[in-house]
Design a protein that fits this description.
245 residues; alpha/beta; Rossmann fold; six-stranded parallel β-sheet; two-stranded parallel ribbon
């Protein structure tokens, strides 16, 4: 399989590169020109295309011939960076390619997610400060995901919980909606977020799903994964502690 990783030089992106190489995939990596050096550890094993990830010509070149595209949607600045990146991938990816996008729990597909007051306050405060400082715009990520959800491509939007570093604990578990007790721990190893992204490429159960994930060894995952009702949240092949992809 040939895959393109858009935003490959960041922490999540580098983990995805390693997971993809571990699976024997051919990797094309896109990152800003000033960040190319961050990928030196993979020199000779991947193709690097430097450029802004919302540059349509860069994305067109990078995704050509790729069976899958893994995209880190980062809402940097206030100039629709995430939206431009997502639209370029949607427009230029090969017909039938698997498209997997990353974002946070604050993204909702159907409005059925339930957020705590603390979570909503944190998102609102960060969003206001980020936009005030022109550092980031969460609404940009919302719009990017809206366009993905509306597309007829073979997409998956992976919604990540709070993240931490550390050795892999295995494939995260997931639910369709934030507020599910299985997600209560709100913590995932970043390396495992990347693992879920890469595993989704060959998991057809996740096509046109927006899974909200949590680490498989967190207390909430351990408390709820093996209960009967969890089976409906995690259909066979959908991933999680019970399924090795």
């Amino acid at each position: 399989m040939k895959v393109c990783i858009v935003g490959a030089s960041g922490k999540l992106g580098k983990y995805m590169v390693q997971h993809a190489l571990d699976r024997g995939y051919q990797v094309v990596a896109v990152c800003r020109e000033r960040s190319v050096g961050k990928l030196d550890a993979f020199a000779g094993r991947i193709t690097v295309i430097p450029g802004a990830t919302n540059d349509r010509e860069i994305i067109k070149q990078a995704v050509a011939g790729c069976d899958g595209v893994l995209t880190v949607l980062v809402p940097w600045g206030v100039h629709q960076y995430s939206t431009g990146t997502a639209q370029a991938v949607l427009d230029h990816a090969e017909p039938g390619a698997r498209l997997v996008f990353s974002c946070g729990w604050h993204i909702t597909r159907d409005g059925q997610d339930t957020y705590s007051r603390k979570f909503k306050l944190l998102v609102a405060t960060f969003g206001w400060l980020a936009r005030l400082l022109r550092f980031a715009d969460l609404n940009d990520q919302v719009e990017a995901c809206r366009r993905v959800f509306a597309s007829d491509t073979r997409w998956t939007v992976v919604r990540g919980s709070g993240l931490e570093e550390g050795e892999s604990q295995g494939l995260p578990v997931w639910s369709r909606h934030v507020g599910d007790p299985i997600l209560q721990s709100n913590l995932t190893r970043r390396v495992d977020f990347a693992l879920f992204m890469v595993a989704a490429l060959e998991n057809d159960h996740l096509i046109r799903e927006a899974p909200a994930i949590v680490g498989c060894r967190t207390p909430s995952a351990l408390a709820h994964t093996d209960q009967p009702e969890a089976a409906s949240r995690h259909p066979p092949g959908a991933g999680g502690r019970r399924q090795v992809l």
